[in-house]
Amino acid sequence: MTVTLSDIVMQYPGTRALDHVDVDFLFSEVHGLIGENGAGKTTLVSILGGSRQPTSGTIAIAGVETALASAGDALAKGIAHVSQEGSLVPGLSAAQNILLGDEPRLGLGIIDARALKRRAAELLARWFPQVTIDLDAAVDTLPMADQKVIEIIRALRGDMRLLILDEPTATLPAREKENLWRIIRSLPPRGVGVVLVSHFLSEVKALSDRITVLRDGRHVTTLPAAEVSEAQLVDFMLQRAGKTAASGEATGAPRASGDIVLEIADWRVGGVSADHFTIRTGEIVGMIGLTGAGHFGFARSLYTGEGFLSGQTRFGGQPLSRIDARGMKARGVAFIPDHRMENSLIGEWSVRENLAMVHPQAGAHAGVLSTGKEEKAARAAMALFNVKAHSPEQRIQDLSGGNKQKVSIGKWLYGATERYRLMIFVEPTEGVDIGAKREIHRHIQRLAGEGAAIIVASSDLMEVADIADRVVPFVQGRAGPALERSEFSEARFIAAMAGDPQ
Amino acid sequence: MTAQARPLVEAKEASSRKSRDQWLLKYSTLLALLLLFLGFALTVDRFLTTSNLLNIVQQISMLTIVGAGLTFGFAAREMDLSVGYTVGLSGILVPLMLISGVPLPIALLGAVAAGFAVGAINSLLVTLIGIPSLIATLATGSILYGINFMSTGGRAIYGGLPDGYLFLGQGQILGIPVLAYAMVLFVLVAWFLMERTIFGRYIYAVGGNLKAAELSGVNGRFYRSAALVVCSLFAALAGALLAARLGSGQPNAGERYLLDGLATVFIGMTMIRPGTATVTGTFFGALFIGVINNGLNLVGMDTYVQSIVKGLIILVAVAIVSRTTKLKLL
């Protein structure tokens, strides 16, 4: 028995999220679904779960063409979607959560508390006899893995044939993951297929019977998990036809690098650990990894200290006991984050006001802001970065992605009186056009040439290959050994991101 | 080609519609104020007289000062619901100090200290403990209410207030009430701070996008606290002036300044920079409330009707702002 999706197209204004995708899901398998952010996984599983309708294409269950008009319709046809964000109601007991919306009643809308407990216990015993969970406990007091089990049992309440699990282990500690893995594996022999969406390749490979890879909205391949290595999967996820990683257009001779600017040892921060990392003046260090590998969070924590647990840090030779944004800014560190509208810009503000955010005193006389002086400084920054706007007074949210990003970088240079010692970029060319991308790369190289140490954490391998002198790969929360420029190749990057020592 | 062209045209129409809406929004409140003013002037004989106009100014001066303080809070996206009771607190404290023989300047410093203390407690609760300002200040307001009544036994404090103090609330200089000068002074100071200093810029920044501001090296906690302190400080000084105007300290005199003060800010948010609280907007908001209160008084409408009218005006103003801008109040 299968669900077959044929020739599925999902067109959004301006982007095609799914481009003629064919894939079938068996009721007797765990089917891994992988791809980088933006590959189309979420869209595909929402179509399968009935919450979105494809622009074109057909869906067939057991060979009979059908429509999945809503999540309720999909449920009625035996397909349940357990989303990534918990859908449990905290404060209610585990049993109440299992039977939420389907409570046994005594009549007059009064819930039969005893029958409810009995039915919940029956469901648990029927599906997972090996699991013991206190069904009377408030669900939010249970371990994360048990909460996930409760969500799964609730989804299995009806007569389900296919269960979509979206990043089920993302929030679980390692010890609890294995329990959930066993539970997932126990479903197909009992006639319930699983579609497993996960960023953890080792997990997908260990759990799945077959794996489907999506890339840029296209179906790349579907193949038995046993016949493919993790490195090959990374290759499928990232490879872009006809392009190689190191495009060679780059930088020529490596810049002479100087003194160590930042040195860290035995860092543990959030879910990431790094044994050792140094960066010198004039050096551009790339940080790469698959989604969820931790490189973005690590780069950010070097500026904010967010999630810092333990480790030693030296900046300019001096030991630091504490890392926070204001302190690092005062030491000459700039941080240009990803998701610029969320982390960097104020949408209702003008270009001028956004540019003046980091060093407003540059547009002030003795602490009094002067619009004229600000405008002059803003025009200088706009000229330097070639920001296209009607005027410095235009609202930032009306600019294109590339121009917004230039402002997000330019605001650090507006009114800066001293050179930065360290500049940290996360996804510096996220959602910008190719022209703006080249300009941003040139600025990064120029700033390095002027003596700044630069970190570029990026999901764009070509970008890193083009501008970095050295690349640190991150694998599932660990910083791996760095690759030198002479070793750059797509194959090496991919192997490093899959955690393959070569 | 046509298939692609249509959305573009629609987008263009939508954006010109949007900019027209924005323009209308910016000036519709001023227009409404003007119509209201003309309406009263034509229908109520005593409205358009020098003494009544000065009366309006006098009536709105404390309200404007409270509203100007609240503007700092709104700009930083912090709400202060304790301002009414802070007005009451210093409106009791200053007369009490004066009656017990404290010189006027020291008594006024006492009001400053009281405002600062309330603001410091509010901001401690909000930025260090992490209670949302709406709830924290609701609670501190309730506490202040209790203190105000406990410390006075619910009775007004009067008799023996020095002339210099009463002059602040009731006197005139060159035919214009002293309160009007005070209002202009506070509005100018608030406007200057918000529009012309880095301090004000950063208050707007933490309200506009706290994360972006903090990642730019701005001390979010400091500016959110500062905004709450300004709310209380302005309210306390308004309270000192209010007691001088009334000639007595009354424990419940400040209560109406909460709702009216919020109303001035909401009305102000429909103009200047729609969706953003500005000092200029708040000033016009106070004028709006003042004209309505005064006009309805003159035609003999009782206070309950005024309350209904004000409630409706607040709803209309907030409805306009939240439907036309991406307003996030909390």
TrEMBL record, chain A:
PROSITE patterns, sorted: ABC_TRANSPORTER_1, ABC_TRANSPORTER_2
Cross-referenced SMART domains: AAA
Gene3D superfamilies: P-loop containing nucleotide triphosphate hydrolases (3.40.50.300)
UniProt keywords, alphabetically: ATP-binding, Membrane, Nucleotide-binding, Repeat, Sugar transport, Transport
Domain ABC transporter intervals: 3-241, 255-501
Family, similarity comment: Belongs to the ABC transporter superfamily.
Protein's UniProt name: ABC transporter
Upper classification of the organism: Bacteria, Pseudomonadati, Pseudomonadota, Alphaproteobacteria, Hyphomicrobiales
UniProtKB/TrEMBL annotation, chain B:
Pfam families: BPD_transp_2
Entry's Gene Ontology molecular function annotations: transmembrane transporter activity
KW DNA-binding (keyword) present: no
TM segment ranges: 24-44, 56-76, 83-100, 106-131, 143-161, 173-194, 226-244, 279-298, 304-322
Alphabetical UniProt keywords: Cell membrane, Membrane, Transmembrane, Transmembrane helix
Domain of life from the UniProt record: Bacteria
Residues annotated as signal peptide: none
Presence of keyword tRNA-binding: no
Topology in membrane: Multi-pass membrane protein
Localisation: Cell membrane
Protein name as catalogued: ATPase
Organism: Xaviernesmea oryzae
